[in-house]
Design goal:
308 residues; alpha+beta; Aminopeptidase; 2 domains; four-stranded antiparallel sheet; 14 strands; 33% helix
């Protein structure tokens, strides 16, 4: 097994995207087109077998300071971590890569998807003196029965009574207006980059915009969903202030989830929230709380790393 750190300019787009789409935790926000916009100049560890075939990758932006180098979760990428080819020695690869990261003395903050808890990656990381924190996302297993709960059911009926219409064919351009009216959603310095990501994902076929229009035809709300390999991830959403009590956001999510279930998708991920009111909203939509890992490490001072 060989571990190599390479820069973006050394990566062949077709090879990278093919690996991600066929990996056990591939997602649109790990494809080269998304990463190029989210974190230009990103690098990656490539883990190869004896035949020089890729068996795992770990994309990441590396920021270099005077005394340390830092790896943080790429912007607008919910999960990352180690992306593995199917049917390989997962635990051994992860152990070697975590040892490599420690040896290279990075400051680290990375998020791993929930499936990494299944084989107890946290114990492995703690053995190597990483700091592990569990965070919560909300997911729906679309292979099982699903329904709205409590207030969400009432909000859906209210939206239907008021004549709201749902479309899934609108371009993401409408989201600009909603961002202007909801400045709390995202700092202004990130908005241009986010719009670029939306346009890339929409053009590439990985983004569906679930849009709500009032009975008068006025744009009122939008929910942005990424989809790939029978999984869907909630990316962002917004509603005009005057329509926040209309139930349209529940209506949009309900339409989206029903559609993905009908099309044979297996997972819908709300991408979590540590805010109680939003967590309650996701729970009402049928989401179940699922833990995922935040992996952190503070490096040794450089003068100590030279003698370790």
């Amino acid at each position: 097994m060989n571990i190599q750190l390479i820069s973006r300019k050394e990566i062949k787009v077709e090879q990278w995207d093919s690996f991600i789409l066929n990996a056990n935790s591939g997602a649109p926000f790990l494809l080269s087109g998304w990463l190029d916009i989210a974190c230009p100049g990103w690098s990656t560890y490539i883990i190869s077998n004896a035949n020089q075939e890729w068996i795992a990758v770990m994309p990441m932006p590396i920021k270099k300071w005077v005394f340390i180098s830092e790896i943080r979760q790429p912007l607008f990428c919910m999960y990352g971590g180690i992306i593995l080819k199917e049917n390989i020695d997962q635990i051994n690869i992860e152990k070697e890569l975590l040892k490599k990261l420690k040896k290279d003395n990075y400051r680290i903050e990375l998020y791993f998807p929930p499936k990494y808890l299944e084989h107890n990656l946290s114990s492995l990381a703690q053995e190597l003196n990483y700091v592990i924190k569990n965070r919560i996302t909300y997911q729906i297993d679309l292979t099982h029965s699903w329904e709205l709960i409590g207030t969400a059911k009432r909000n859906l009926q209210k939206s239907i009574r008021e004549g709201w219409m749902v479309s899934d064919t609108e371009s993401p351009d409408h989201f600009h207006l909603l961002l202007q009216n909801n400045p709390h959603i995202m700092p202004k310095k990130f908005q241009n980059r986010f719009v670029q990501l939306l346009n890339w994902a929409y053009t590439a076929g990985y983004l569906t915009t679930w849009t709500g229009f009032s009975k008068e035809g006025k744009l009122g709300a939008m929910v942005l969903i990424l989809q790939c390999s029978k999984s869907a991830w909630y990316l962002s959403g917004a509603v005009l202030p005057e329509f926040r009590q209309s139930g349209i956001m529940t209506h949009l999510f309900n339409s989206a989830i029903h559609d993905y279930k009908k099309r044979g998708f297996t997972l819908f991920d709300f991408e979590g929230s540590q805010i109680p009111s939003i967590a309650k909203f996701f729970s009402g939509l049928g989401g179940s709380p699922i833990s995922y890992l935040c992996l952190k490490r503070e490096p040794l001072p450089k003068w100590l790393s030279w003698i370790r």
